[in-house]
């Protein structure tokens, strides 16, 4: 009789070991090693001639805040990032030496050769994903893709080059891709892009004069039917107006630079802490899942043991108890992970108090650079409307300042 009980006990242990082995196999298969990358920035080795330098305008990014509350997305941080990221991309592009003027814009300007848009998909200090779109003034698409990277702890080191943002790999990828595309163009093609841009700007100001200079093809790409003469007096005045636009953008970017400097340190501190919390949270989730799986395995093994002997009954009770304890521990870890999410929310609130929007004064008007900076930018352009009329002698269409 005892031999039968021993066999039943061994069978129960065998069943339990098979289930546990299966669960461990699933866990091992799902485990992964985080791969970090290092992307260098391509820089011009010589100073490029002016005719090869296109101007770039980077629109404020879309913070991509979901309508429903998300435990890992803090609206005020996202709004700050949507202003911070374009400015750091501007600094990165300027550092390459491949471009002319680079500005952050709250609204598209016809005076710019290339327009860059961005939407934040993921940003938690550990992982970053941004969808970037780039179009030139002719309407041709240069880039439309998602740039992603996983951030190493060393990226937050105080001993690193502090001009390099922890997300620098992504900025460098974007800059390098833009250079690769630009290098596919001949100098004459780059000049033509700028010339079409000048005509589009002039056509916005004085449509009756310059509308006929441009035509769209089947793909809605602008092409020049003819170009203004070098001594075109009207166009020379338009160039002066364009310089006013650039001066306006220079002024606007001074304030974006101040905002960038003000939030740089608290933003980096938040990302560093958020990265640690994200890693901890993921480890806790994995630990909780592992414990729950092993608990389930123990329960399954206990149920699988079949027999009515005292030994097999004791084995089942021990397995069931152990399984329940493992599952309870797993659920406890899951609760702990939830606490980390709440602490991350508190960090977001603390960051928001240090990233207040800027209040600036311009020609007697108070301008608040927040989410409605686009409206303020358009107001700035309206303020210049009368100056444009006085200097050029031409009425400006309403569409040019809307």
Strand content: 5-15%
Unreliable runs: 18-32, 397-402
Structural class: alpha/beta
What is the strand tally? Answer: 9
Question: How far is the first residue's CA from the last residue's CA?
Answer: 94 Å
Percent range for helical residues?
55-70%
Mean pLDDT metric: 76
The value of Rg in angstroms is 30 Å
3D shape: elongated
Largest sheet, in brief, is: 5 strands, mixed
Record the strand order, biggest sheet. Answer: 2-1-3-4-5
Number of contiguous helices: 8
Please write the string of helix (H) and strand (E) elements.
Answer: HEHEEEEHHHEEHHEEH
Polypeptide structure, described:
Residues 18-32 and 397-402 have low confidence and may be disordered. Strands 2-1-3-4-5 form a five-stranded mixed β-sheet, covered by helices on one side. The chain is 56% helix and 13% strand. It has helices spanning 2-30, 75-96, 168-182, 187-205, 207-210, 233-304, 310-354, 373-392; strands spanning 56-59, 102-105, 114-123, 127-136, 141-150, 214-216, 222-224, 358-362, 365-369. The protein is an alpha/beta fold and 402 residues long. The longest helix is centred in the last third of the chain and has 72 residues, at 233-304.
Per-chain topology:
Layout (H helix, E strand, L loop, with lengths): L1 H29 L25 E4 L15 H22 L5 E4 L8 E10 L3 E10 L4 E10 L17 H15 L4 H19 L1 H4 L3 E3 L5 E3 L8 H72 L5 H45 L3 E5 L2 E5 L3 H20 L10
Parallel strand pairs: 1-2, 1-3
Antiparallel strand pairs: 3-4, 4-5, 6-7, 8-9
Helix pairs in contact: 1-6, 1-7, 2-3, 2-6, 4-6, 6-7, 6-8
């Amino acid at each position: 009789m005892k031999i039968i009980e021993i066999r039943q006990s061994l069978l129960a242990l065998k069943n339990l070991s098979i289930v546990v082995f299966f669960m461990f196999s699933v866990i091992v298969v799902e485990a992964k090693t985080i791969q970090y990358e290092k992307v260098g920035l391509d820089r011009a080795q010589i100073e490029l001639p002016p005719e090869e330098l296109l101007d770039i305008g980077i629109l404020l990014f879309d913070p991509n805040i979901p309508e429903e509350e998300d435990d890992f997305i803090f609206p005020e941080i996202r709004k700050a990032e949507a202003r911070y990221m374009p400015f750091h991309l501007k600094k990165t592009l300027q550092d390459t030496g491949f471009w002319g003027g680079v500005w952050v814009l709250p609204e598209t300007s016809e005076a710019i050769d290339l327009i860059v848009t961005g939407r934040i998909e993921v940003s938690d200090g550990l992982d970053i994903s941004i969808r970037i779109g780039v179009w030139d003034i002719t309407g041709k698409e240069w880039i439309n893709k998602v740039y992603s990277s996983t951030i190493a702890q060393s990226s937050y080191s105080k001993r690193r080059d502090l001009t390099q943002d922890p997300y620098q790999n992504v900025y460098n990828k974007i800059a390098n891709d833009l250079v690769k595309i630009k290098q596919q163009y001949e100098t004459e093609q780059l000049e033509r892009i700028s010339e079409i841009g000048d005509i589009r700007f002039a056509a916005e100001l004085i449509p009756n004069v310059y509308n006929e200079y441009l035509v769209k093809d089947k793909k809605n790409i602008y092409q020049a039917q003819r170009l203004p003469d070098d001594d075109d007096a009207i166009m020379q005045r338009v160039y002066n107006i364009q310089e006013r636009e650039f001066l306006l953008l220079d002024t606007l970017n001074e304030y974006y630079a101040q905002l960038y400097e003000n939030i740089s340190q608290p933003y980096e501190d938040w990302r560093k802490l958020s990265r640690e919390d994200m890693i901890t949270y993921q480890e806790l989730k994995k630990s909780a899942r592992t414990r729950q799986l092993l608990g389930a395995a123990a329960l399954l093994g206990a149920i699988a043991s079949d027999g009515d002997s005292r030994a097999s009954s004791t084995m089942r009770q021990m397995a069931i108890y152990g399984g329940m304890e493992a599952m309870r521990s797993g659920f406890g870890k899951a609760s702990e992970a939830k606490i980390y999410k709440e602490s991350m929310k508190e960090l977001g609130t603390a960051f928001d108090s240090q990233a207040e929007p800027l209040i600036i004064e311009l020609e007697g008007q108070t301008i608040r650079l927040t989410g409605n900076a686009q409206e303020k930018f358009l107001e700035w352009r309206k303020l210049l409307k009368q100056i444009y009329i006085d200097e050029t002698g031409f009425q400006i269409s309403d569409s040019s300042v809307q």
